[in-house]
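Data availability (excerpt). The following record was deposited with the supplementary files.
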Amino acid sequence: MDKLKAIIKREYLTRVRSKGFLIGTILSPLLMMSFTVVPMLIARVGGPDSYRIVVMDQTGDTTLFERIEKLLAPERPRDDHYELRREIIESEKTLEEWQQNLKRQITDGKIDGYLILPKDVLTRDRITYHAKNVGDFGSRSVIGDAISRAIVERRVMQAGLQTEDVRKLTKDVRLDTRNARGERERGQTFVLSFGLLMIIYITILVYGVMVMRGVMEEKQSRIIEILLSSVRPFDLMLGKLIGIGLMGLTQYLIWSVFGLLISAVAALPALAANWQKVPKIPAIQMVFFVVYFVLGYFLYATLYAMVGAIVSTEEDGQHVQMPVTMTIVIPVMISSLVIRNPNGTLSTILSMVPFFSPVLMFLRIGLQMPPWWQIMLSIVLMLATILGAVWVAAKIYRVGVLMYGKRPTLPELARWLKYS
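Predicted structure:
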C-alpha cells in the first residue's frame, strides 16, 4: 500500500508541477472564453454605428415608408440604427438614373444600400435590396422582417380590416413548457445535460490518452525497467490511473473556482435582478455526474493503459487506440436517439452497455429520470467491466511494458493472458 501511495503521489505531483499543466490550466479557460466572447465583441464593435439606406419609392404611399421607418427604429440604445432616406421615383427612366448614382455612392461608402419599392409592391412576394455588405445576414434579416410586416399591414388595411383586430386574431400562442419539478423549461435541461455530458466525454478522452502516452514514455525511456524492480506491475498501473485521474479532477476544480469567481464579479448585477431565471442544476444530477465521470475514467483509462503497454511508438499507438476511442465517440454520435426518447427500449438497452453508460445513461438522467433499478444496474455492470478490464490490462501490462519493437499479434496477447 505504501508503494501504491508513492506511485500515486509521484504521478500526481509530477504532472501538477509541470509547466504544461500550469499553462493549460490558465490558457484553456481563456481560450474557451475567447471563442465565445471575442466574436460577440468583434461583431458588436466592428459593425457600423448606423446603416444608411435610400428607399426609392414608386408607390407614392407615404404611410408605407413611415411604417417601415418606425419598425426599424431601435428599441434599445445598443440596437443597430437605420437611417432611411426616401426618394420619390416617378418613372422607370428616373429609377435607372437613381440606381446608377446610388451604386456609385455605395462604392464610395456614402450609403450602405438602397431599397426599391415598386408600384405594385403590395402584390409582390419579392423586394429588391442592393447592399454594400451582402454577408451581413443580421441587418438583412431585420430589414426584411420590417418590410414584410409593413406590407402585410397595408394589405390588411386595403381589405377593409382593422390592423389591430387582425393582429389580435393572428397572435401567436406559445407553449409554456414545464419540467417534472414544475419549473419553466426554456431549454436549460437539455443545455445543462448535454454540457455536462460533453465534459465527461472530453475528460475521459483527454486523460485516457494521457495515461497511454505516460506508459509509452516510460517504455521508451526504459524507466519502466527500474520501476518494476521495486514495485508490482499492477500497483504501477493502478497508481498511474489514480494519479492522472486526481490531476484531472484538480484541473477541473481550479476551472470551476475561476469560473464562479468570474461569474460572480462580471454578472453579479444581472444575477441579482434575474435570479429566478438562472438555470439550477439538481443536486442528484451532480452526484451522478461525479459517479459516471469516475467510473468512465477508470474504465477507459485502464483500456488506454493497456494500449500503451502493447505499443512502443506513437504511430502504433494511434492505430491500436482507435477501437477504444470509437467506443467513446459512438455514444455521443447516437445521443440524438436518447434525446428524442430517453426511456425507449433502444435507449434503455444502449445505456446499459458499460462502454456507453457514462454518456447515454447520464444523458437519460438529465433529461428524464429513468427507474432506479436501471441506474443501479448500469453502475453494477460498469463496475464488473472495470474489474474485468483491470484484470486483463494487468496481465497484458505486466508483459507488455517490457516488450519493445514489433507490435504483438492477437495470438501473442492471448498467450500473455495465460501467464501466471
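Summary of structural features: Residues 50-169 form a domain with the D-Maltodextrin-Binding Protein; domain 2 fold (CATH 3.40.190).
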